[in-house]
Structure formats: C-alpha cells, structure tokens
Amino acid sequence: MPSVRQLEYLVAVADLLHFGKAADECGVSQPTLSQQISALEKRLGAALIDRKGWAVQMTPLGRLVVERARRVLVEIQEIRSVARRSREKMVGVIRFGVTPTLGPYLMPSLIATLHAEQPDIKLYIREGLPTEQALELARGNLDMMIGPLPLIGEGLEIEPLFREPMHIVVPPHHPLAEKPTVTRHDLAGEAFLSLDPRHHYHRMVEGICDDLGAVILRDYEGTSLDSIQQMVGSGIGIAVLPELYLRSDVGGEALIRRVTPVDWQATRSIAAAWRRNAANSADFRLIAARVQAEAKRILSDH
User: Fold this and answer.
1) Taking the model in full, what pTM does it have?
2) How far apart are CA 126 and CA 280, in angstroms?
3) How far is CA 11 from CA 6, 16, 30, 35, in A?
C-alpha cells in the first residue's frame, strides 16, 4: 500500500507542478521526493506523472489518484486532530461495566459530572456480575469496569476507590426497629435476604451471617437490591443494604428501618479496573478519580 508520505509528495507535485518546489514544500530533498514518487508508481504499476524535460504534468491516472489521495490525507489529518484533542480531553465511546448493586445508584450523578467536564466522551454502560465482567475486560469486550473487591482477571490494572458502609435494615414493625440499643447478640438467628449466589453481594452477606450467627433465606433470593428492599418491607426477612443505595432516589428508606448495632459494622471496598498498559489508561484513571470523588461526595452529604 502507498505510504502517507508518498501520497503527500504526490499531492504536492500535483499542486505545484514542480519537483523542486514540491520538495521544499514537504521539507525533503528533491532526490528523496523523486525516489519516493518513483517507488509509488512502481508499486501501483503505472505512471502518475508525465515528465517531459522541465515540464511536469499529471497523467490521467495520476489525476484520479491525486483526487483520492487528497481525501485520504484529509481523513488522516482528522485522525491526527482527534488524537491531539484526546490529549486534552477524552473522546469516543468507552464500554463501561458496572455491578447492578452499585451502578443504578452511582452512575446517574457520575454521568452528569463527566458529561459536563468531557462532553465528547460517551459511556456504553453494561451491568453484570463482577466476576464475569472482569473476564470480559481481560478479553477486550469491556474497556473499564467498577465493582466490589476482589476483582480478579489476567493483566488487569486495579485501582481501589472507596469503602462503602453496609447497613442492616428491618421491616418497620420488626422488634429490632423499636429497640433503643441493638447488639450483635440480637441478630443471632435472624433470617437475611440476599441475591443469588453468583453475586459478590451474596458472598458478602453470607460472611456477615456467619459472623453474626444468622442465616440466609435460600428460598427468597432477590433479583436486585430493589426486590430485597421490597421483601424486607413486606416482612419476609431482614437484609444488608449499601449506603449509596439507601441514599439514592430509587432506593431510600420508605419501606424499611435501619438498625445500627453498637458492636458491629461492615463495609465493602469498591475498585475500578482496566487492562494493564491500555492506550487509554490515563483516561480510565481520570474516570476512576471522578467515580471516587462522586462517591465520597454522596457519602459525606448528610
């Protein structure tokens, strides 16, 4: 295939109809320019320039090639411009994975912030299980993801972002909702709702139940945090819900009551991940910083 420089030399000759002036325009010596155009003609198997003494004219084929070369060079210039702009601000579509126990309650405000700062970036958001998304990330099907630690995948850069408090919630008329002081002992034997076992959230709740001497309701696994909140509100069991969910407009505490044991607390660690040495690592790091800042703003807003 012709090189970009060969096309630039050819267009310069077509514009100036003079090898010496075209060489000066391109910043190369005349022999270099002549050799490259000869190499281009040899590669295409046809003459592009009609050389008759000092006169220079384009052949009919040469004019057709120059017409197309101009379009190619314009597109290349656009690519260079995009690359130049990307050094100043992010551009393009980023395939962004997020866990459903976090995304719906953090992403809306994050997207608004990013769009105001980086209007040329677009997030293609895909919700999914963190374990599966880490695999998709390593395979190149995602560009970046956020989710609870641990995130495991080959060749991934993992950036811890924040720790999110987890809270025990009960139905409004549950005995623990009326108790002035709740301890770990009061939670022993209680039945906790959770998501299905594929979720990191399930493993976290399972660990909390083991620690408190409580049990998981295996026959009432939720499909989302909303379904868990609604089942708690209806009195089926109690649950552990993330702080960001409880503070969100779609979550909230209308159907439930928090209980805060004096001798117990739990958090989950949220991290961002992308492929190590990815070309857009600087952009991903900036997005991770925005996620971190937005989460901390929400968590500190009383």
Assistant:
1) 0.68
2) 19
3) 9, 9, 15, 15
